[in-house]
Amino acid sequence: MFALGVQSMNYGDFSGMDQTGTITDDFSANETALVLSHSRQISIFKLGVSAKYIQGAIESYRSSALGFDIGGSFIHPERELVVSLLFKNLGFVMSDYSATSSESLPTDLQVGVTFKPDHMPFRFTFTGYNLMNTGAAYYDASLSVNEEAPGSIDKFFRHVNFGAELLLGPNFNLRVGYNHLIRKELRIEEKAGFVGLSLGFMAKIKAFELAYSLSSHHVDGAKSYFTLSSNLNRLFKKKSII
């Protein structure tokens, strides 16, 4: 299986100023990645790799890099159990923004497990991320007046994502997720709301699968995501009359 994709992030326009604060020309910033992926299943293992050409632009400055995502999954042949390992952003910077810059790709190690207990209509997912960056917890005592510095347990859960599905049938399920890192670092002291939580559902309608999720990163609002997918072989394959 092969896949070709483009990821693009535009940060909008900014007002330019010189060292004295005098307003100059406006400028923009954006990042784009061209991604080529390949995956293959060998027995009970599924392996995959993505090659990414990444380019960033800030005003007149440019940067480029070549990165790779390499991962694999173990799929239990009899039970609903999948264990995955992923190395993200392995690679190097080809050209930096300036001669004095010293950037590197944000390499990440992720480990995940998804399982469904027997005789229960639930599926659970646990994903560990930022495992190569043990000091990822942010804390500023001057800004967190009523909050204590994160302890060992708090720091541990800032590297774990939780997910659960309620399987109401073969064609419909409800989903919920929780990210402790987002909950702790993006909430405000006066009100936490649903920060770090995500809700959604999946519905299969004939040859199509529709997924919707609502994710909150800040009390100011949440983001909605829609995904529509289909197996093209199943969609266009002619039925045999024999």
Spell out the blueprint of helices and strands:
Elements: E1 2-14, E2 27-42, E3 45-58, E4 61-75, E5 81-95, E6 108-115, E7 122-128, H1 152-157, E8 160-169, E9 172-179, H2 180-186, E10 197-205, E11 208-218, E12 221-230, H3 232-236
Structure notes:
The chain is mainly β. The chain contains three helices and twelve strands, in the order E-E-E-E-E-E-E-H-E-E-H-E-E-E-H. Strands 1-2-3-4-5-6-7-8-9-10-11-12 form a twelve-stranded antiparallel beta sheet. The protein is globular.
Helix fraction by DSSP (H/I, runs of at least 4): under 10%
Round the Cα radius of gyration to an integer and report it: 22 Å
- Dominant shape: globular
Question: Number of helical runs?
Answer: 3
Helix-and-strand structural type: mainly beta
Strand content: over 45%
> Main β-sheet: number of strands, strand sense, barrel status?
12 strands, antiparallel
Order of helices and strands: EEEEEEEHEEHEEEH
- The N- to C-terminal Cα distance equals 29 Å
As laid out across the biggest beta sheet, the strand order is 1-2-3-4-5-6-7-8-9-10-11-12
Question: Would you kindly provide a brief summary of this structure?
Answer:
With 242 residues, this protein is mainly beta.
Identify the notable features of this structure and list them briefly.
242 residues; mainly beta; twelve-stranded antiparallel β-sheet; 3 helices; globular
